[in-house]
Amino acid sequence: MQLTDFDASPNLVSLFLSRADEQGDKPFLWAKRGGAWQAISWAEAARQVCLLAEALRVLGLTAGERVVLVSENRPEWCLADLAVMAAGLVTVPAYTTNTERDHAHVLENSGAAAVIVSDAKLGKTLLPAVLRADKLRHVITIESFKLPQLGRADAHEWTSLLEGNAAAARAAVDKRIATITRKDLACIIYTSGTGGSPRGVMQHHGMILRNVDGAARILANDFGWGDEIFLSFLPLSHAYEHTGGQFLPIGMGGQIYYSEGLEKLASNIEEVRPTIMVVVPRLFEVLRARIMKQIEKQGRVANYLMDRAMAIGGQKARGKGRLRDKPMDLILEKTLRPKIRMKFGGRMKAMVSGGAPLNPDIGVFFDAMGLTMLQGYGQTEAGPVIACNRPAAGIKMDTVGPPMLGVELKIAGDGEILIRGEQVMQGYWRNEAETAKALQPDPVEPDKGPWLHTGDIGHIDEAGRIVITDRKKDMIVNDKGDNVAPQRIEGMLTLQPEIAQAMVVGDKRPYVVGLIVPDAEWMLDWARAEGEKFDIKALEHLPAFRSAVRAAIDRVNGELSVVEKVRQFAFADEPFTIDNEEMTPSLKIRRHKLKERYGVRLDGLYRG
User: Fold this and answer.
1) Number of other residues whose CB lies within 10 A of the CB of residue 167
2) For 97-147, what is each residue's pLDDT tens digit?
3) Residue 135: left (phi > 0), alpha (psi -120 to 50), or beta?
4) How far, in Å, CA of 224 to CA of 24, rounded?
5) b vs e for 151-166, b when ≥16 Cβ sit within 10 Å of the residue's Cβ?
6) Do 307 and 235 touch, CB atoms closer than 8 A?
7) CATH code that applies to domain 4-258
């Protein structure tokens, strides 16, 4: 396999089929069935993709029509996605956490002609929306389950669409994809949306191929290109996992294991022993907290080693590594670090963080444990990766690294990051007004394509790395005109053992206040130590409990400027979750939802 393959590939399906021809009967997609990991080979995957693609055409679906895909991460997700594209159609991934209203919006806005759904559980919220979708003609179920009367739509089972002549299907697919170019639409990914209705980002084949090319070059140049093992955990309906967790391994000829979910993720990591993982910062925060608690219970020696590891890691992060730390570094490499690395399978080359800002302290922690963490930066509108840290460029945890291959970048007068290149979207589906805001032509060089206005504020450091300070629309501007970056403060707050989640506000106000979700395990330990009943609502009204949380906030305040300090705080009624719509599926907080629910409570912090 050559890196030049990415430039030569006219579309994503041709890339996949070329890899499948090279890999043959080698394992490709893994899932746990009956308690054991079972694989689908590259050759079998290609056979199923081509048969399914031709079956979709037989159903009467025509070039450019949209097919909504509603499924948890599993081999059939990948096969369906590729088959839709191989049929000359457009995939529309939908989140498994979508409500009936969300599904109705996606089906109606995309004008979907067909939908593929995995099982009865996901069908429960999808099917009522299907019944109201005027243009939908086909419902395909991956697992067999009882369907209601679908009216105008026809029902089909997955297995029935995998029958036929595989050689003829492959020949038909080869002929069709010869006409699909890098500029043709591959998928419409609806942004999870931290505010407002989701918008459909039009991603073309070249957009994703360019992203895969850039990511593969980083891995090849900095870590070597071998038999890569990916563990897929983040929703494949998210652009980050779709590109980084599916098409990157396809491009590299790697294997993909599908995680059994958050509850079993830790054991899946130890079983699968992945070489690469793409994860969101929130998960790293959870893993760090778990490791720290395990170390705390292991006694004085383990805690001493952890303290020394963190101290040395902090010195290195500041570019002040000391020769006198070398003996202890060697001791840590023989004692603490191997144990931590084994929790991640023992052969992890890199963990790539994206989807939201990573607190630099989290990066320092994992680096101190001997695990390479690369913070990436991007958005769905850019394929999604715009930049990524890499060892060759010098990893600095408060940056997101240099721009990816093919990314042209500039900083606007107000500090907004602008990019252009093949990895920039074609626009928002059926939304010319929002497209015009996001994509603006260059009056001097219009032939080079429009500039994508990312909505992120940042600058370039002396080594060419991007430093993100905040989201343009999330930036707090207080009543004196001072700019405050809320995500930085929130990240620092949630590093405290007492605090699980936080949101800070203060726009047009004299100071910053916070909404706090205490850490459940810490609350339980505190209640036991103080002889109090573990009742969350009762604890929050105890002066001593509030003082303990206040102390955690004050520790953070000690590292903040005067305008950033959190002066007052209130407790949330419950954790921010996807289910209560206070977090996106990629685990970013939905500020507008939290402000709607807690606005009066937060306003009250400015009185008296």
Assistant:
1) 10
2) 888 988 999 999 999 999 999 999 999 999 999 998 989 999 999 999 988
3) alpha
4) 22
5) eebeebebeebbeeeb
6) no
7) 3.40.50.980
User: What is the C-alpha to C-alpha distance for residues 450 and 381, in angstroms, rounded to an integer?
Assistant: 12
pLDDT tier at 194, thresholds 50, 70, 90:
very low
Contacts of 121 (CB under 8 A, 6+ apart): none
Cα 151 to Cα 596: distance, rounded to the nearest angstrom: 38
Angle at 271 between CA 270 and CA 275, to 5 degrees: 70
Residue spans per domain, the chain = 4-258, 477-606
pLDDT digits (tens, 9 = 90+) for 457-495: 899 999 999 998 877 777 787 777 677 889 889 989 998
Residue with tokens 């719509």: 581
Sequence-distant (≥ 6) Cβ neighbours of residue 106 within 8 angstroms: 68, 92, 94, 98, 112, 190, 198, 200
CA dist., res. 212 & res. 243, Å (int): 7
- Distances from the Cα of 274 to the Cα of 100, 187, 229, 257, 308, angstroms: 35, 28, 5, 9, 28
Share of the chain above pLDDT 90, in %: 66
Report whether CATH 3.30.300.30 matches the domain 477-606: yes
**Chain position carrying tokens 């937060």:** 602
Between strands 154-157 and 138-141, the pairing is: parallel
Which amino acid is it at 447? D
pLDDT given for residue 608 in this prediction: 58
Gap between the Cα atoms of 496 and 518, Å rounded: 10
Q: Could you give the CA distance from residue 381 to residue 191 in angstroms, rounded to a whole number?
A: 9
